[in-house]
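Attaching the record inline, Q. Sequence:
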Amino acid sequence: MIRSKLLQAAWPRGQAYAADAATKGRSVYRMMMPEYYANSCLSCHGSPKGETDITGYPKEGGKEGDLGAVISVTLFK
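Structure, as predicted:
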């Protein structure tokens, strides 16, 4: 859903995705909320990609406004 919905140019910025679905043979309600990089995120997640950030992990090369994460909640019915 991230590639097919949330990353599409036509997807309204910040809009959650929600749907009834099936997971492991059970009915579920799934909700996904996109989170975007703010300027304050870029010291760890920005450029240059691969450079070590302050925590010792490589930076992702993100830019302000890029999709940085998705909060996903699945509720079994």
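The first strand starts at residue 17 and ends at 23. Residues 2 and 70 are 8 Å apart (CA to CA).

More tomorrow.
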